[in-house]
Amino acid sequence: MGNPESWTQFINQLGEDEERNQMLVSKAIKSSRVVGTAMLTGTIAHAERLHALVTDYGVQSLLLHGQLPKKEREQRMMDA
Q1: Which domain range does residue 56 map to?
Q2: Is residue 47 part of a domain?
Q3: For burial by CB atoms within 10 Å, which of 17, 22, 28, 57 has the most?
């Protein structure tokens, strides 16, 4: 992965680390069987990547971020 030269590069490297993402998703799914679980990320792209992995496991998840229109965020929360 190499040493990042900026905070942005560091955050992007974390978000693109597939082994790390698989580990995060696995732990989140395991935790969610006991209690509600939230995964917070530094970028929307990372949130979308994690959401896709969770969905690939057949687990229902809710993706929210600030770039979604307010009505869409509200609808997603109502549908969850």
Answers
A1: 7-79
A2: yes
A3: 28
